Fold these 2 entries.
Entry 1:
Amino acid sequence: MLTDLFHIVIFPGFLFLCASGMTAEYIDRKLYARLQNRMGPPWFQPFADFMKLVSKEDIVPDEANPSMFRAMPIFALTASITAIFYIPLWHVNALYHFNGDLIVTIYLLTIPTLTYFLGGWYSTSLYSKIGAVRSLTQLFAYEVPLLMCILAPALLANTWSLSEMAAFYTNHKWYWAFNMIGFVVSIIALLGKLEKVPFDIPEAETEIVAGTFTEYSGRLLAIFRLSLNIEAITGASLIAAVYLPFGLELPTAAGFAVYLAKLLFIIAIMSLSRTVFARFRMDQMVEFCWKYVSPFAFLQILICLIIKGVWVR
Amino acid sequence: MPPEKGLKMRKVVIPIGPQHPALKEPESFNVTLSGERIMAFSARLGYNHRGIEKACEERTYVQDVYLVERICGICSHTHSTSFTQAVEELAALDVPKRALYIRVIIGELERIHSHLLWLGIAGHEVGFDTLLMYSWRDREVVMDILAELTGNRVNYGINVIGGVKRDLEGHHIKDISKAVDTLEERTKYYIDIATKETTLIQRLSGVGKLPHEDALSLGATGPTARASNVARDIRQDDPYAVYSELGFRIVTDNHNDVYGRTLVRLGELMETYRLIRAAVNNLPEGPIAVKAPRKIPEGEVFSRYEAPRGENVHYIKSNGTDKPERVKVRAPTLANVQTVARMLEDEQLADLPIVIAAIDPCFSCTDRMITVKDPDDSNPRGIIKWDDIRSYSIGLYRSRGVDFSLLNKKLAEKLKC
């Protein structure tokens, strides 16, 4: 009971995720800035931003539905934290696992996007509503390729549990190399999930101010931002667990270092893509996801099925 | 309007401005949307009126040079040059060649800084902030040169009636050549990006279409017109200063869209580097200014200047005193802003910022005139007397429940105390 509480609140739960999420934001911003030939923020900037927002007043618009408006950030935060418990991080076994936790994790990672939609919709501002509709439209574009390309390695491992998948790939070394198409696809989907350039359409500031978050301020905005950071960590951890399942059999300290290196790698890729691309338009994004990304996800499934039929007996 | 299929979304009108992150100056645009598609667009100018024309009439010509320079924060030199050209023509001054060359050099350096600024803003509007950071970093090079030549980064204050105020020394010329070399290399890189980077091209091409005929009929000027293949440039059509000696090639493009406007501006940058080199190499010796009379002879004059954004027009009427009787300024944005509604027809909301930005709008330069329409239309000439406007506005506010007479009384009492 006490250990469970420790896991949930401190490690690898809430506190660890807050710290790593803020570090991830710092690394992302610093890299982004250095790639753009700028100085970038000091290391405590994400924390300072968070503290500043927390100390400010919460303003709920008169027209908004106050309970929904206030509840949505909490839902987003809870869902993105809960998802981490089923993902094997630096050990073959996740904290909790059962057959089917793969689907639960993906489901939990979808909830934040839904909260962006609902939060935006219930704040009733025009910009928020347009942002909300855009996040949902975007969800339909990237969620299918993401699910498909995460299912492919699971098919190869013949299990629906992330921990068992990790065990399979630890026993069958280098099999993860077959899943590299899926890795790229899932990075693209994660960019869409986190609403980062080139998929920051729902919060395109030059069109709709801040989209969903236009009316949010103070603590509620702080929680939303924190949940986005944590979602980045959980999303990257999921990708690391599914596509980069090596180093899991190492002793704890070394395994943890490998895990951090994987996260850093994924975050660096996302910063790089943020630097080199312009923002897509909604129609272009949907077209891109359905025309190019989804077929590649299918291709990944096909590759995994063939390999399963030929090699794995 | 195409027939709507499937799920219908209620039409919404979203306000872009007067305060909005996409706009650098307060201006109001109302966009009617059906889903993401723009159904109607209306613009309302007039949030930045500063009464500069009227202020000019109450100051001397010498003071006015500094005042008109402050019309625009980016192309300040265009306004002061345009104004001084007009006054010099009225006073029949023979401006020394060296002064004209210096004016051209400063004007072209200003064009570089304006176009690089635009490139950055365009990048930002399509969510490509890296381009913004890079081009604004390079813009510092030209800003530093301008500060070195004139002492200021933006309002150079180099023009006086009859010439220029500061001379170019040998080391200035060396620095200019060095800066131009650096910038040329960087601009080639940007041209490379603009012609190769897929997401950027996708966001720019086919957006904000302005066909050739529409560009002509709506009276577009500057890069906006030239991107619709209208080969119109005051530097060639009506050469001022020394452009006729330097030789000049108009950069046009037939893409008719935002992509074309980007290419035109980048091409113009390359042409500008050539012009600056030619001007620096041919810089004649001699004085840099002649003495101008305090009182300017009676007459009217019309002066044109090719600003980075298009044709800039100054009209001056003199009554023989040291103050102008009338100064009228038409900034290029006023000519271009009317094309925006045409460009936005059937576009998506996501393209609105870049389409507006593509004319490189400078609204505070534009807001100058108020058109008053007679509500009863009883006056055939459409002219209203000042007292009539006053009583009309008092009546209008009273009908809305706002009465200023009490406030005026209180103010008068306060002033007495």
Entry 2:
Amino acid sequence: MSDQFLYAIEVTLNGLMAGVLYALVALGFVLIYKASGIFNYAQGVMALFAAMTLVGIMDGQVPFSHLINATFGTKVHHFGWHVPALAAIALTVGVMVALAWMVQRFVMRHLVNQEPIILFMATIGLAYFLEGVSDLMWGSEIKKLDVGLPQGGSRWVEDATAFLGSENFYGFFIDKLDMVATVVAVLLVIALMLFSNYTKQGRAMRAVADDHQAALSVGISLNFIWILVWSVAGFVALVAGIVWGTKSGVQFSLSLIALKALPVLMLGGFTSIPGAIVGGLIIGVGEKLFEFTFGAMMGGATENWFAYVLALVFLVFRPQGLFGEKIIERV
Amino acid sequence: MFYREAGDFSTTYPEDSQTFPIRFDRYRYYVVLAFAFLVVPFIINDYWANAILLPFLIYAIAAIGLNILTGYCGQVSLGTGGFMAVGAYACYKFMTAFPDLSMFINVILAGLVTAIVGVLFGLPSLRIKGFYLAVATLAAQFFLVWLFNRVPWFYNYSASGQINAPERAEFGILVTGPNASAWATYLFCLIFVTISALIARNLTRGSIGRSWMAIRDMDIAAEIIGVNPLKAKLSAFAVSSFFIGISGALFFAVYLGAVEVGEVFGITKSFLVLFMVIIGGLGSVFGSFAGAAFMVLLPVLLKVVGVDMLGMPTDIVAHLQLVVVGALIIMFLIMEPHGLAQLWRLAKEKLRLWPFPH
């Protein structure tokens, strides 16, 4: 096999891994969309907020310390303890549930029965709000997140595949973190599928998604379900935040992965969990291969827009995405 | 008491269908215009021009443009930053390619180029709607910014990748470049704002505006009563992009003078203009002005209160600003989805009867 071909395969593999990460973010979108018809733009910022909270708790940072110091002239920064990763994750889940409750109580409850586009814009407002709050709470500098996930290239894969090519080929380079992320994503999808298909709350969630009024009339509490959905989305955001945060540090750009998840959703369909996965994989592989083949010719960094243009072209021919439910308009 | 339409009778049709049919509105409009054209240029200084008035005027044009698309025609766009970049780069190319061309013509040509690009990216709106379209316009945002960043022809192969506005004079008075005086740049922008607002106001009152609103309220019903959605949607995209292109051109040539596209015309700019439209009021030309003024003044106000009066560090104030803007957006959507324009309308209703409410 020629080296060029092998490199293409390596690019594809890395694209698949990147696609899994995109899918991880896209999952959070799909969950909220399915259960409440809200397109939650704040999902990316929620991932940032979750990751920042996790780092803050682990390092024993004092929340709002910067603001407190500026207002009262004190000098507090850290509590002086370090919380083990698992305990910190559990605490962060608690924070995300509290956040879900607040979103439901102060925002979404007042916007019931509004048009979807109004709800969408409200989540943009929420994204700004949350971004400001997380910066105020934990400071805006880039932080390192280390919860014990393996990192770096996998020697094992490299050694195992080195024989495929010639002298100059050292085997496929695959980040261990990406492999872990893939496993996590698969587990998460299975867990979510089981949850929504086989538990009482999961069934209630699907009922709410189907028809708000009918769900209410059989005694399902809308408020509870929405808090649940936002909590689950918060949890998915935390997982995405951990993986991305470990990969590239916890910083503002983390919230931009939401923008990468949007074309994934358009491709896979807003209402389908498998669609989010497949869409993520297609975009991940597509943009890496496109950059590999045409990037140099077109000046590089085509990853910024390729996903969007692909999704745009796709939408013109199939507006509901690959796996989405057919959009039927009734007059 | 202060605001009344009683005793205001129209005796001819043109009188009845003029832009401001109520006498009080009309006189107020003349007074505002006279103040803006005849008083402000004499008292303006560099700080007021650069911190408040120029951004306000330029954003007002962009907000009018986005309001036509989102507020009147119901097509949400997140590509405003990208379209402003088209206006800026088109203006730059015209300025450098034809040095003798008047700046007025340059800016209008930039608007026309943007209109064409807007129609291209508006084509998917014929198939998709709602936030599917919103996400599709993001494609325009990212693609256009990338294009201007990566293709050297657009920035005339300059080493820094920036574009710099050369000096251009209008009637012998500099309006672009670092040596242009505050009042000249202000007047130059004001002329465009006045004309844009007038055009927008009259377009939205006429048949084309009605067809936009019909599409916004219910596109299927509109189609059935004979509104051509292709024409209505694409014309909304064209007109909206035209205004946004003009504002982008002014933003670059008159206000900033030098532009790095990813920084200035990024996604945050799209959101900023969208927020102006939401806070100001969807579907209202006056709302575009109110929203632009609000979003320009808010950071200045927060800075004055936070940094200068309370002595807080600038980065905290910047973060607080995000919190305040986000909270305001949510509050407006919950409490007054029609924005400042609706508050103004309510105030007028109250003032009609004040101080005797019955």
